[in-house]
Write a structure and sequence with these properties.
This protein is an alpha+beta fold. 46% of the residues lie in helices and 13% in strands. It folds into 2 domains: 80 residues, Arc Repressor Mutant, subunit A, CATH 1.10.10.10; 82 residues, no CATH class. Strand 4 and strand 5 form a beta hairpin. The longest helix has 22 residues. It is globular.
C-alpha cells in the first residue's frame, strides 16, 4: 500500500504542471486543457458538448472557455459537417503554434526521455487505472479512437478504412490516432457489470 500511496503523491505533484492558479502565457489551466484537447480530438469530439464532458464542466462553463480561446484567435467555430445545427471548435494555425508554449510540455519531454519500455509500461498502467476508475464511476473515458470497441475495419474499400459503430460514420485511418470523448474500452461493459 505504501508504494501505491507514493504513486498517488507523485501523480498529484506532477499535476502542478497543468493545474495551476491564475494564467500561464495568458491562459488558465482549463483553457490550456481545452486547447490541448481540441488539437488532438477527432471530429466527433470537437463539439462544445464533448468538450464539456472532457473538462468535466457545464455547457455554460465550456462556452466561457471557448469564448476566451476564440477571443485570443486560438480556436474558431465552424458549422459541423455531421450536423449543421451544431458547431465544431477548430484549433487555428496560431493555436497550434501557441501549443509550443504549453506548460505541460516540460513533463511530456521528461517522459519522452524514458526508455521505450518504461514509457509503454507507464502508459499501460495509468490507462488501466483510469479505465477502471471511469467504469466504476460511470464516467466518460476519453482515449485514442483506435482502441475503442465502436471502431471496426470497413472491408468494403480497397484501401484501409474504418467505421465508428456509435456514430455510424466512416473514419479515415489517420483519425483513429485522435482522441474521442465517446471512447469505450474493450471489456469495459463486462467490468461495469462486475462493479455494479
Amino acid at each position: 500500500m505504501r508504494v501505491a500511496t507514493e504513486v498517488v503523491e507523485l501523480l498529484v505533484k506532477s499535476a502542478g504542471t497543468w493545474l495551476f492558479e491564475g494564467h500561464q502565457f495568458g491562459l488558465s489551466d482549463r483553457e490550456w486543457m481545452a486547447l490541448r484537447f481540441l488539437a488532438r480530438a477527432n471530429r466527433f469530439s470537437r463539439t462544445p458538448s464533448a468538450l464539456a464532458i472532457f473538462l468535466g464542466t457545464t455547457r455554460s462553463g465550456t462556452s466561457e472557455i471557448a469564448a476566451q480561446l476564440r477571443k485570443k484567435e486560438l480556436v474558431i467555430p465552424e458549422p459541423s459537417a455531421e450536423d449543421r445545427r451544431s458547431i465544431t471548435l477548430c484549433v487555428t494555425p496560431q493555436g497550434r503554434k501557441f501549443l509550443d508554449r504549453d506548460p505541460i510540455n516540460a513533463l511530456r519531454d521528461r517522459i519522452a526521455a524514458l526508455t521505450i519500455d518504461d514509457r509503454s509500461q507507464l502508459r499501460h498502467s495509468l490507462r488501466r487505472v483510469l479505465v477502471q476508475s471511469d467504469v466504476a464511476q460511470r464516467e466518460h473515458n476519453t482515449d485514442i479512437c483506435s482502441g475503442c470497441i465502436f471502431l471496426v475495419e470497413d472491408g468494403a474499400r480497397s484501401e484501409r478504412q474504418f467505421k465508428c459503430r456509435r456514430f455510424r460514420k466512416a473514419i479515415a485511418s489517420k483519425e483513429t490516432a485522435l482522441l474521442c470523448t465517446y471512447f469505450e474500452e474493450p471489456g469495459s461493459r463486462d467490468l461495469a457489470a462486475k462493479t455494479a
